[in-house]
Amino acid sequence: MLNDKLPDQAVILAAGLATRLRPITQDMPKALVPIHGRPIIDFIFDQLKNINIKNVVVNAHYFYEQIEHHLQKYSDFNIQISREKEILETGGGIKQALSFLKNDIFFVINAKILWSNGKINVLKRLVNFWDSKKMDALLLLHPTVSAVGYEGMGDFFLDQNGLVSRRKNLQISPFLFTGIQLLHPKIFQNTPDGFFSMNLIYDKLIQDKKLYGIRHDGEWFHISTPKHLIEVENKFLDKNESFYG
Questions:
Q1: Residue 138 phi, psi (nearest 5)
Q2: What SS3 class is residue 18?
Q3: Complete DSSP assignment for 98-135
Q4: What does the radius of gyration of the chain's CA atoms come to, in whole angstroms?
Q5: Comparing C-alpha atoms, which of 110, 61, 109 is closest to residue 87?
Q6: How far apart are CA 5 and CA 8, in angstroms?
Q7: Of the chain's two ends, which shows fewer C-beta atoms within 10 Å, N or C?
Q8: What is the pLDDT of residues 29-80, one digit of tens each?
Q9: Confidence (pTM)
Q10: 125 vs 55, 104, 178, 199, CA distance in Å?
């Protein structure tokens, strides 16, 4: 174990327009789309509560009022809403949220995914693997062959030391990025203001050998289209306590 203290802050990315999930998201944000009767974002808060993370920033844009209203029930969390007047993409959205965070590592979780933990809570695994002398960002990667609701060609390769490299055009890679990561705020120095993708930062970190990853040993579920939603609902079992173990 390289770290014995969990960070106490997280960012949930919930600002997207969710156009691929329409008509389901015609009048609601993706983060509030129900899975077995519960909004996606509630499962994420379950995971954060499970490891006692209380300080949460949620970025919001599309139907942001609904997200703000829904989150009022979480009185045991310190929740800040980072409202985007215009879509800022992943990099710009996280950068704007930094104003609500301490200058320390923090989790980022995309509000269009669900996951189960393996033998060890996956957020704890990320912290246990974190080494500030080697890495500036740590991604949770999942095997493409076992992902639910995913039809892509993968995103990354992972070497035996945990270093991440990107797949090239027309290549198929064994791992996809899950949308769960641990970041240090210093990686946002000298980045553009406004709209930009985290891929800009990842490419720089790969070049500097500062981007690491770990393989997810639980299950992972991606909700992007109505077809994916049906597939995820058929395979994601809310009653299974292993999803929160």
A1: -135, 120
A2: coil
A3: GGGS-SS-EEEEETTEEE---SS-HHHHHHHH--TTT-
A4: 17
A5: 61
A6: 9
A7: N
A8: 999 999 989 999 999 999 999 999 999 999 999 999 999 999 999 999 999 9
A9: 0.93
A10: 19, 18, 14, 23
User: What is the distance of C-alpha 146 from the center of its chain?
Assistant: 18
What's the pLDDT tens digit per position in 217-236? Answer: 999 999 989 998 988 888 87
- Using alpha carbons, select from 84, 92, 87, 104 the residue that is nearest to residue 188: 92
51 phi/psi in degrees, rounded to 5: -115, 20
- Residue 191, helix vs strand vs coil: coil
The set of long-range contacts for 127-132, using a CB threshold of 8 Å and a minimum separation of 24, is 127/3, 127/5, 127/6, 127/7, 127/182, 128/1, 128/2, 128/3, 129/2, 129/162, 129/212, 129/214, 130/2, 130/3, 130/105, 130/182, 131/2, 132/105, 132/184
Q: Which two tokens stand for residue 198?
A: 């985290």
Distance of CA 164 to the CA centre of its chain: 17
Sequence-ordered strand ranges (E) for 85-225:
106-110, 113-115, 137-143, 156-158, 164-166, 175-183, 211-215, 220-222
Amino acid code (one letter) for 177: F
- Cα 58 from Cα 65, distance rounded (Å): 12
Specify the DSSP element, H or E, that contains 79: strand 78-83
Residue at token pair 């299974």: 240
- Residue 8 corresponds to which tokens in the numbers above? 């106490």
Q: How far is residue 135's CA from residue 183's CA, in Å, rounded to a whole number?
A: 9
- Tell me how far the alpha carbon of residue 69 is from its chain's centroid: 22
Q: How many helices (H) and strands (E) does the chain have?
A: 6, 13
